[in-house]
Specification:
Blueprint: H1 6-33, E1 93-97, H2 102-113, E2 117-122, H3 127-139, E3 144-148, H4 154-168, E4 173-176, H5 192-213, E5 222-226, H6 239-259, E6 265-271, H7 277-283, H8 286-290, H9 308-315, E7 326-329
């Protein structure tokens, strides 16, 4: 058809207008989701990722298990000042284990600022960190439910699901994030009690909580598990922890095949070295804490704020075709 045909010209103008509108909407959403590290709402210029956050060496430090993020030096960035939401999870209801600090805390902040109501599970010793995040969730105008207790108990795992459903008015996002990590140079140093503690925290609780949550979750719901680079490239000093993370990766892939019949998506995130309380409470030796993150090409550990968007992406409807996947954030090393 000739280019000067009136119908062709009109159609071309309509398509050009639609393209511009779509580009504007996508750009607007990207700006809304990106907060500069200083807390401004404007899009930041490109920055060298290697130097965005502190690099080792870090001060020597250790805390009793389970530790507090507020006592770490430097204090981790969970997105308290930087994360800007754009309504991607408006009206959603999320249960996050280990939501008081680390990656779970970053996910809780991001979810609340994206419009979700959030219940967090944590150990009673972590109450100071938990109080802070509960205030942050409520400051975002969302419901916050605090669920202190030990997930090594099957009865407790079942009860937190019921409490979350009651407190939030339903449940359509589950983040299995809580974990235990302890450094041992040899299998001969791991007692049966310590082995059992790691497996009950990292695997049994994952199984119990997920099993209790599924009957409450409607089609369109999402489950996001936390695996690790150790599932693919296990550290010699994290034998029991690494085996649980490999199991979580396979649990995720298998469960995704089961639950798609219910319309529920299941994915996992595999972080590399992230600066969290796990590292300073026996997860690494004092020497390893001082040089933590130095071994990856990025030359530094990740901050929880840098991975929160992945948990948002996997929970949001924009990931409607994504299930059974493991998403890595490893500073340039490992898999997937």
């Amino acid at each position: 058809m000739p280019s000067d045909d009136p119908k062709s010209t009109t159609r071309r103008k309509l398509m050009q207008g639609a393209t511009v509108g779509l580009a504007t909407a996508v750009a607007g959403r990207a700006v809304a989701q990106t907060g500069a590290p200083n807390g401004t709402a404007e899009a930041a210029p490109p920055q060298d990722s290697r130097n965005l956050y502190p690099r080792p060496p870090f001060p020597a430090q250790q805390q009793p298990w389970p530790g507090l993020a507020g006592r770490m030096n430097p204090r981790p960035d969970h997105g308290e000042s930087s994360y800007r939401g754009s309504g991607r999870l408006a009206g959603r209801r999320a249960l996050i284990t280990g939501g008081d600090s680390g990656i779970g805390r970053a996910a809780a902040i991001a979810y609340a600022r994206e419009g979700a109501d959030v219940a967090i599970v944590y150990l009673p010793q972590e109450e100071p960190d938990a109080r802070e995040i509960i205030q942050i969730i409520r400051a975002a105008g969302r419901k916050a439910v605090a669920l202190p207790g030990d997930i090594r108990s099957e009865a407790f795992c079942q009860s937190i699901v019921e409490q979350a459903v009651a407190g939030l008015g339903g449940l359509d996002i589950l983040v299995n994030n809580a974990g235990r990590q302890q450094s041992h140079d040899s299998i001969l140093d791991i007692s049966t009690e310590q082995f059992d503690w790691t497996l009950r925290t990292n695997l049994y609780a994952l199984f119990w909580i997920t099993k209790a949550a599924i009957p409450h979750m409607p089609p369109g719901a999402a489950i996001v598990n936390t695996a690790s680079v150790n599932a693919y490239d296990p550290s010699a000093n994290l034998l029991d922890y690494a085996m649980t993370k490999a199991a979580i990766a396979n649990f995720t892939k298998t469960l995704a095949k089961q639950l798609i019949e219910r319309g529920i998506r299941v994915n996992a995130v595999a972080p590399g070295p992230f600066w969290t309380a796990l590292q300073v409470t026996g997860g690494q030796t004092t020497e390893n804490v001082q040089k933590f993150g130095q071994q990856v090409p990025m030359g530094r550990p990740g901050q929880p704020a840098e991975i929160a968007h992945v948990y948002v992406d996997l929970a949001s409807s924009q990931a409607s075709y994504v299930t059974g996947q493991i998403y890595g954030a490893m500073g340039g090393t490992g898999q997937p």
